[in-house]
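QA checklist item 7 of 12: single-chain prediction sanity check.
[x] sequence parsed
[x] length recorded as 527
[x] structure emitted
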Amino acid sequence: MGRRSLLRGGAAASAALALPAPVTLLAGAPAQALSGRPAANWGVQVGDVTTSSGLVWVRSDRPARMIVETSPTESFRAVRRCVGPVVGPGTDFTGTTALRGLPPGEQVHYRVVLADPDDPRRTGEPVYGTFRTAPVRRTGRRTADARTGVRFLWSGDLAGQGWGMNPDRGGFPIFEEMRRRDPDFFLFSGDTIYADGPIAPSVTLPDGRIWRNVTTEEKSKVAETLAEYRGNFRYNLLSEELRRFNAQVPAIVQWDDHEVVNNWYPGEILDDARYTEKRVDVLAAHARQAFTEYFPVSTLRPGRDGRIHRVVRHGPLLDVFVLDMRTYRNQNSPGRQPQDTQGVLGADQLAWLKRELARSRAVWKVIASDLPLGLVVADGAVNFEAVAQSDPGAPLGRELQIAELLRFIKHRRITGTLWLTADVHYTSAQHYDPARAAFQDFEPFWEFVSGPLNAGGFPAVKLDGTFGPQQVFVKAPTRANVSPLEGGQYYGEVDIDGHSGELTVHLREEGGAVLFTTVLQPGRVGQ
């Protein structure tokens, strides 16, 4: 049964989690761990998987030594043991262990054991997971489990606008649907939490129905302290569906604004009565620490460079360029500056992105952007939050930086780029073409939008013509903050054929419907 089977340990072998009355945990909650021994109540995760490596995450309920055992089979007859860190209160009892020297294109089974740091004989129940390493193109005979293609999902926006875990619909059901798709990995495109969005016990819908929420103390107000930010990440992990998904599907994760506060930028001072701490830099520091603790991100491990932006090389077919459009951006503004070297990426990140794109030898180069390029996302009445600013003419403001990047891609003859994003709470496909654009020194490319995972749906925003977008598909509600009970929850799927290199994009809706499909050919300019 392998990867498609229900993993041993059920919902990642977690322990039952106490929830405020009157809401109880969903049916099938994991059993209590051995009394007096460390317990991994929050499941396991794997991040940033390559052809030979991955990063395993766990959270303990007390100080413990993290131990990871891997095996090529579910029987664990042949075991490789990796001793990880001692986790404690400094990281909210979370920890990661790097696995290296893994075989490419193969299923890896692992289990995490937590041991008493003072008595290694006292261990909790192991927590099981599995993942596939990235493939390499092989010649000659292949094993039965070897795959040469790559298939992954992407989406964003989880537990936003007051729509939390609803036990009447099974918590976060979209994760169970995505798990059954059996992807190689999941690209989590930001808004992984809504730290600025409290969750009430219930919400009355326009038609009179009642949406019930699982609630916690940390989700009763906006997050301001480190403990409250940590509690936002723990809230999502109360979902059995998410824990089971995490135990089977590795992730590549980036952040956007709601990990901190809506539409934030460095140096901002909030004008929001809900906050006693008005300095966004202070909030962002807490949020970044919690984000680092609760996701396995290779560049955020101790001793690494501490950046969220990075390249995850997923074999010869695919490089994923993960952007950070928050940490280095300039102030939100009307976006009409004739010069703007800082932009939405900052000068250093732009230089890094150019350098890594030029170095890439992958057939496909996915630019994982936490904000769309040509969709006009406003911040209040006169300012703009993303790149576009509704002026269809020559690039201004943050558009200048994107124009510089697109020009570089063209003149360096870099092929196979496409942009994936979330953020706007609907799904769409845009094709950008210089023949339609005010700025014309670039090659045509695609941008695909998906999400939300479990949040309010919102109407489509207008396009900015600077880079010549044509919206060939869109599905969005006609009113704001439509509940997940009314539909409008989306994820995307990318399938790269291991032999031809052909890339297929599907835009999917929760429930299984395929809304839009397009096929791109490798190495072809102007698709």
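[x] summary fact logged: The two ends are 39 Å apart (CA to CA).
[ ] second reviewer sign-off
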